[in-house]
Specification:
4% of the residues lie in helices and 35% in strands. The chain has 165 residues and is mainly beta.
């Protein structure tokens, strides 16, 4: 007499996708395919004292296991105008990113930080598109920006680094 048993093991899949409007999600896996944030005030002609807001949402693929997401800022964000800009990031409940929703959100990057500041904590993304994390970016050219900032620009980049849990 004998008994037999077997089991098949398959590794789970994990992946995230992003959206600049909180509705249409796609993959932006490299800096070369980065999604362009839609700031309310055109960031191409910011006068001192201006703050502009933009949404970026992240969720898991379906199928995908759960995980965490960490926001990382690029060191190159300090080039050109980037040395004068400050920013903050908060998670918000809806997909409307403005001064009011930013103020009511949960802090990810404290307001007034250099563009090279990364988040110190993680946000949780549930399995199979179970939740959506809505990040609200607030970028400011301070009133105290020097006149030497005129005409400068920077292409600021952030990476959402996700890990399965």
């Amino acid at each position: 007499d004998s008994e037999h048993s077997q089991a098949t093991f398959t590794a789970g899949r994990f992946g995230i996708v992003g959206s600049t409007n909180g509705t249409n999600f796609s993959e932006h896996a490299t800096s070369g395919s980065a999604a362009t944030l839609n700031f309310q005030v055109a960031p191409t002609a910011m006068p001192p004292g201006t703050t502009t807001y933009a949404l970026y949402s992240v969720t898991t693929l379906n199928p995908s296991v759960a995980g965490t997401v960490n926001l990382r800022a690029a060191e190159a964000n300090s080039a050109g105008l980037g040395q004068h800009l400050t920013y903050g990031v908060r998670t918000i409940t809806g997909t409307t990113c403005n001064a009011s929703t930013f103020a009511a959100g949960a802090e990810v990057v404290p307001t007034g930080r250099a563009l090279t500041t990364s988040a110190t904590g993680n946000q949780i993304v549930q399995a199979n598109n179970g939740n959506q994390v809505n990040y609200c970016f607030a970028v400011t050219l301070p009133q105290t920006a020097p006149s030497t900032a005129q005409g400068l620009s920077v292409t600021a980049r952030w990476e959402f680094v996700a890990q399965s849990t």
